[in-house]
Write a structure and sequence with these properties.
It is built from 14 helices and 17 strands. With about 400 residues, the protein is α/β, with parallel strands linked by helices. The protein has 2 domains: about 210 residues, Response regulator (Rossmann fold, 3-Layer(aba) Sandwich), CATH 3.40.50; about 150 residues, Response regulator (Rossmann fold), CATH 3.40.50.2300.
């Protein structure tokens, strides 16, 4: 017969058993790496809110594991946007922490280039809510060594829930043709995302018979673009297409176009689909001239699980979600589903489970990840800025 256990030895066990099951579970971590410093903060806060909502929906536990979430910043005050050193630091930190099994990010495609190979070698799944540069996933649509250079292990660990710029740039050029544009000036911010989507627009516009009367990269830190506006006016351009983001001075560019008397339409991609862009440019400068493309539907038009998310978000935060909030939410749901299917705390197994997501009933509709890690959801829209709000004027791919 065993001797009776002393109360002092029994007490810790009794206390542990008294805890809720969610607190007894082994910890598993999800992190996000997004620009939390600078003007992208409003957008990324909305995305982080979406991630937290997805975790709350499962009461913070999946497959017997307690889910911990950490919100990391990859932007610096000096740059006012994502910083290469910080993104590399985040990726390496994630690799070292063995409790981390998923990395949600990045927001900027240029940042993804840095973290992708680091995370790939560690079999750490990475899902982006916002990267759209085609070369990150699609052979033949980027540099010669892309996307293989981001997959040193030979396995695909990177996925995204938003359509890529080969679709977005095409839709933008098609729309420009539809509204009668015959001459366009194409500008970009010299970054991976901005130049990439600008190049697609230029290529498709040329095929459609739109004359590209100017093509240039701008200094995203310039105080003004007055001399550039003079060139645009003399070129006869009827539209300026800017491949860039709010953070790379889209607002200043359009303000200078208006102040300089350039009677042109202005079009930009999803990197400007945020309240910060309207605030930076001023709603009067945008009225009647500005169009933005975006991969997906406006939050208020989502259906099914997406509508449930939209209504829950408004109730919880008493605010309209920014456009990418639902993409942060969808990333987290895909990660949680991958953990559930894997059933164990193993990076490679979770990575493979995420890769196998097919006909996933998500907030963005029913979608799958294809063999490159891209979403099969191809819905795109064009919006016009009216009275300080984004208003859909065309939806493609529904």
């Amino acid at each position: 017969m065993y001797p009776p256990m002393k109360l002092t030895r029994l007490l810790p066990l009794l206390l542990l058993l008294a805890l809720p099951a969610t607190l007894r579970a082994e910890a598993i971590k999800i992190v996000s790496s997004l620009p939390r410093t600078g003007s992208a903060n409003a957008q990324t806060t909305s995305m982080v809110n979406g991630i937290r909502m997805a975790i709350e929906e499962v009461n913070g536990t999946v497959a017997g594991y307690q889910i911990a979430y950490e919100d990391w910043d990859d932007a610096s005050p000096e740059r006012g946007q994502w910083d290469p050193q910080l993104e590399a630091g985040n990726a390496n930190k994630a690799v070292r922490d063995k409790d981390i099994v998923a990395y949600i990010g990045t927001y900027n495609s240029g940042a993804a280039k840095i973290s992708m190979p680091i995370l790939n070698q560690a079999s750490l799944v990475m899902i982006s809510p916002a990267n759209t540069y085609p070369g990150l996933t699609k052979p033949g649509l980027g540099e010669a060594n892309e996307p293989a250079v981001y997959r040193p292990s030979g396995k695909i660990n990177y996925f995204r829930v938003v359509p890529a710029d080969d679709i977005q740039g095409d839709v933008a050029a098609q729309f420009a043709k539809e509204i009668g544009i015959k001459k366009a000036c194409v500008l970009h911010d010299r970054e991976l995302y901005g130049k990439g989507v600008a190049d697609v627009f230029k290529k498709v516009a040329t095929k459609l018979g739109i004359q590209v009367v100017g093509y240039d990269g701008i200094d995203a830190k310039a105080a003004n673009y007055r001399s550039l506006v003079t060139k645009i006016k003399s070129s006869g351009a009827e539209m300026v297409y800017f491949g860039g983001t709010t953070q790379t001075n889209a607002g200043q560019l359009i303000k200078d176009l208006v102040a300089g008397g350039a009677k042109v339409k202005f079009m930009s991609p999803d990197g400007t689909r945020e309240t910060a862009f309207i605030e930076a440019a001023g709603k009067d400068a945008l009225e009647g001239r500005a169009y933005v493309t975006f991969g997906g539907l406006p939050p208020s038009q989502l259906a099914g699980k997406g509508k449930e998310f939209y209504e829950a978000y408004k109730k919880k935060f008493n605010a309209e979600p920014e456009a990418y909030a639902v993409y942060g939410y969808e990333c987290a749901r895909a990660v949680l589903e991958g953990i559930k299917r894997a059933g164990k705390k193993d990076r490679a197994t979770i990575r493979d489970a995420v890769a196998g997501l097919k006909d996933f009933e998500g907030a963005l509709g029913k979608w799958s990840f294809d063999e490159n890690g891209d979403t099969t959801c191809k819905v795109m829209m064009v919006e016009e800025v009216k009275a300080g709000k984004f208003v859909p004027v065309k939806i493609v791919g529904q």
